[in-house]
Amino acid sequence: MNLRPYQLAIARAVLDSIxxxxxxxxxxxxxxxxxxxxxxxxxxxxxxxxxxxRGGSAVKCSPTFKxxxxxxxxxxxxxxxxxxxxxLWTTEMGYIVRLGSARQVFLSAEETSSVxxxxxxxxxxxxxxxDVSKDKYTKEFRPMASSTNATTVHYGTTWxxxxxxxxxxxGNLELEKQDGTRRHFRCDWQEVAKYNPDYLAFxxxxxxxxxxxxxxxxxxxxxxxxxxxxxxxxxxxxxxxxGTQPRLRSPADRSGIxxxxxxxxxxxxxxxxxxxxxxxxxxxxxxIAEVNFSADxxxxxxxxxxxxxxxxWVGKKHPELYRxxxxxxxxxxxxxxxxxxxxxxxxxxxxxxxxxxxxxxIPFKFTQSSKSALGFNLLAAVNAGxxxxxxxxxxxxxxxLMFELERARSTCRPNQSIxxxxxxxxxxxxxxxxxxxxxxxASRLSPRQARGMVx
Length: 455
Hints:
By secondary structure, the protein is an alpha/beta fold. Helix content is about 40%, strand content about 20%. A hairpin with a 2-residue loop joins strand 4 and strand 5.
C-alpha cells in the first residue's frame, strides 16, 4: 500500500492493537486534505482481507449519512477494486460492504439515527470525531466495542476545546505519559507538505488568503484548538483595520465603485433619533465602502475595501427610513452592490429596496451557517489587510464602531462554524454586522473589464 510515512505509523499502531487485542483508543488529527480518509479506507481494506475467512465486523460512523458516510463507502469500494477484489465484494442493506465473511459497516452519527444493536468486534472508527455528539458516542457507539474490547480510532481536525475529539485526545496524552504507548497522532499541514509540494503551495496560499490566525486555518491546517467565547478580533487585528483615508460625505470620485452593508433594526414605538450612547436601543446602520481591485505578488485578484461613511438611525419608522436609504444608495453613492439584512423585520425593507434599485440589492438571511460564513469572510478580509476604516474622526459613529469591535466575542459551534456578537449586557452589534455585510457586498463584485474590438 502506497501510504506516506505518517499514515504508515498510524496504520501500524492500529493493526498492532487489533492483532494483539490491546483494545486501545487512538486519536488521529491530520490536516485537511492530508490523507485521513485514504488512510481509513486502506485500514478497512486490509482488515477485510485479514478477516475474510474467520469473519467479523468493523464499524465506521460519520457525522452525517449524506454525504460523509456515502463517500466513505464509495472510497472503500474503489480501493477494493484497485487491489483486485472487483466482483468478490458485495453490499448488504445499502450500508454494509462484505468481503467473504468479514463486514465493514457504515453508520450515521446523526442524533436521530438508529444504530443500537451493531457490534464492532474488529475495529470501531469515528470519522470527523469533532462533529460527533459526546452523548451519542458514549451511549450508542462506544458500547459496540465492549464485547471484544475492540480497538477504536477517532479521526478528525481540531475545532474548539469542548469537542469529543479533543476530549479523547487529552485523555490519550495523559495515558501516554503513564505507559509510554503512543495513542495520539498529530500531522499538521507542515508534516503533510513534506511529501506533497502541491499541497504546500495550496496551504501557503490559503494562509495568505485567510491569515495565519483565522479560525479555519488554525483548526483545519495548523490543528490548533480554538478557545470558545474569546474575543472575535484581537488588538492587532483591530489595529490592522485602521485606515488613513478621510471620511467622505459623498463620493470623492464619481467613477469609483461603492458598496453598502445594511443591518436592520426593528421599529420603535416612538419615532425619532436617539443618541448612540443609549446602547439599549437597536439601530439600523449602513456602512459604505469604496472597492478597488489589485493583484497580489502571485497574481491573484485582491478586493480592497475602504470604508468611507456610516449612517445610523435609532427608532425611525421603516417607511420614512426606506425613502432616505433609497436616496443615499441610489443618488448619493450609486452603490453597485447592497447587501441588506433580510431576516425578520428586515425582509420587507429588503424587498422594497430591491424593487427600487434592482438586482444590485442582495437580501441576506441570517442562519447559523450564513452568519458563520459572514464572520469567516470578515476575518479573512481583516487578516489580509484588505479592509480598512476611515481615519478616526471622533464622531459618535466611529466611537460606537470601535466599541463594538473591541467587545465582539465569538463562540464555536459544531461543524466548524462560529457565531460572532456583542454581549447584549454590553450593547449591540449593529456596526459590526453592517461592516460584515459590507464585506459580503464587495465579495459579490467582479473587476470591470475593458471591452473593445481589434481593427
